[in-house]
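Onboarding guide, step 5: your first structure request.
Type a short instruction followed by the sequence, for example:

Predict the 3D structure of this protein.
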Amino acid sequence: MASPAAACSLPTPTAPSLDAKPVDEAGLRRLRRRRRRRCICICALVTLGVLLLLGVTLLVLFLTVFRVRDPTTRLLSTRLVGLAPSLTHPNFTLLLTVAVHNPNPASFAYASGTTGLWYRGAHVGDAQVDPGRIPSKGDGVVQLEMTVLTAGFTKDMAQLIRDIEAGSLPLDANARIPGRVVVLGVFKLNVVAYSDCHIVVGFPDMEIRGQDCRDHAKL
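The system replies with structure tokens like these:
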């Protein structure tokens, strides 16, 4: 039988462990670190996904919108508009009308360009192309005055006489026109348009009998 002293004794309170608080703080720190790492991983994955999506979008734009397509040119007419009299080699001025088609989804604003003319390898003319603009996926007409140097035609008189008797003059023309295209109203790309044409002009009517042009553009 228990003694009265034992029955009336109160339980002795247990002193709290000195290591409990540090253990809880260490656990909280580990939990915070895990949460921080999880947030960093999620942010990294989201950023990677956005970068991949942006890369695919830029690739599609480069293959479609940013891909510069070659323009096409066609000489519509030639007309004599001036003559510089000379006792030896009179020079004259031709007004050339050229049609240009721009197949790109961006307008082409071009600066001053140059055009040269050759007759059977001899340089016979020059022209300056004035600045202008060709609309996106549209057409434009360019007029330029070309100074023709008759001295170049007379370097091979026998061949010139044969061409005149045949009623046609074979000519070669090339042009270099620098410009800029603006894509989506934001991206500005510098472009140089080149054109190399072989033209057969009737004599003396100056009608275009035939032409073969190779046009290309470079960024």
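Each response can be followed by summary notes, for example: The longest helix spans residues 20-63.
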